[in-house]
């Protein structure tokens, strides 16, 4: 009986040890699998970060390229669709520029021209690509000339930028109501604190008023100050006058005696 009990106890111990070994093996397998999965996820995460960075860079380049492409563009609204060809549309735009903007314009200053959207009920706007940015800026600067007409012009922005500008309109009105100088530049809201700018201007005026007086180099005050530092010099006329009145007079008596002796010697020789 004792032997059987010992065998049973040994079997139980062996089973317990095998069970523990299996549990340890299970943990090792789980840990190994998790480590492998974590390593793979880390590799995928790095690749994803690299891809996101590249996509962001490519997106920035595309936006910059699109902005540069549209740099010479203007969009004009309100032009009736009465043209029958591309050249007729060019002539219409050239006549509008000559008539309202008083600028000399011909086909060489227009690189491309087209209408936006599908032909339908509404009058489609026209996108004009000029040959130079300078000519486009001349027209944009004088867009107020179209104030009392059926036409108006705007910058050519991508759809995403237009949506962003619409979203910024509410914040723009709030900033202006608060007394700040605010405007939208491309797709960003620029806000200048009016009170701060006024304070800076007042400080600048105060510093100017408190600054010491600067005497111009050709003014009388500067000349007097400069002359006060220099040693006094007498002019040439006063030096001659002092020489005449201060130097002892020559002895004319001695000269006359010498002259008489010379005359006497000449008469004796004769």
Distance between the termini: 194 Å
Low-pLDDT ranges: 209-234, 247-270
Structural class: alpha+beta
Give me the oligomer status. single chain
Q: What is the 3D shape?
A: elongated
Number of strands: 6
Run of helices and strands: HEHEEHEHEEHHHH
Strand content: 5-15%
Rounded Rg:
50 Å
Helix content estimate: 55-70%
* Number of helical regions: 8
Major sheet characteristics: 4 strands, antiparallel
For the biggest β-sheet, the strand order reads 2-3-1-4
If you average the pLDDT, what whole number results? 75
Q: What structural keywords apply?
A:
4-stranded antiparallel beta sheet; elongated; alpha+beta; 8 helices
Summarize the entry for a quick read.
Helices cover 62% and strands 11% of the residues.
């Amino acid at each position: 009986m004792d032997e059987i009990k010992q065998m049973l106890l040994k079997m139980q111990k062996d089973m317990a040890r095998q069970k523990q070994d299996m549990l340890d093996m299970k943990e090792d397998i789980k840990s190994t699998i998790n480590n492998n999965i974590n390593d793979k996820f880390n590799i995928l995460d790095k690749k994803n970060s690299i891809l996101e960075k590249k996509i962001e860079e490519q997106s920035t380049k595309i936006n910059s390229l699109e902005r540069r492409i549209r740099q010479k563009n203007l969009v004009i609204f309100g032009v009736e669709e009465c043209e029958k060809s591309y050249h007729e549309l060019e002539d219409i735009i050239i006549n509008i520029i000559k008539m309202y903007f008083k600028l000399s314009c011909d086909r060489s200053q227009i690189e491309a021209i087209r209408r936006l959207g599908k032909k339908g009920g509404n009058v489609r706007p026209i996108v004009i690509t000029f040959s130079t940015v300078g000519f486009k800026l001349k027209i944009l600067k004088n867009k107020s000339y179209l104030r009392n007409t059926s036409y108006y012009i705007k910058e050519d922005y991508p759809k995403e930028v237009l949506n962003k500008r619409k979203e910024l309109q509410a914040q723009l009105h709030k900033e202006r109501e608060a007394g700040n100088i605010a405007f939208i530049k491309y797709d960003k809201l620029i806000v200048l604190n009016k009170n701060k700018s006024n304070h800076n201007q007042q400080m600048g005026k105060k510093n100017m008023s408190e600054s010491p007086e600067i005497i111009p180099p050709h003014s009388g005050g500067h000349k007097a100050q400069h002359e006060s530092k220099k040693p006094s010099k007498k002019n040439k006329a006063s030096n001659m006058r002092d020489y005449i009145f201060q130097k002892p007079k020559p002895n004319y008596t001695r000269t006359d005696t010498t002259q008489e002796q010379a005359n006497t010697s000449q008469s004796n020789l004769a």
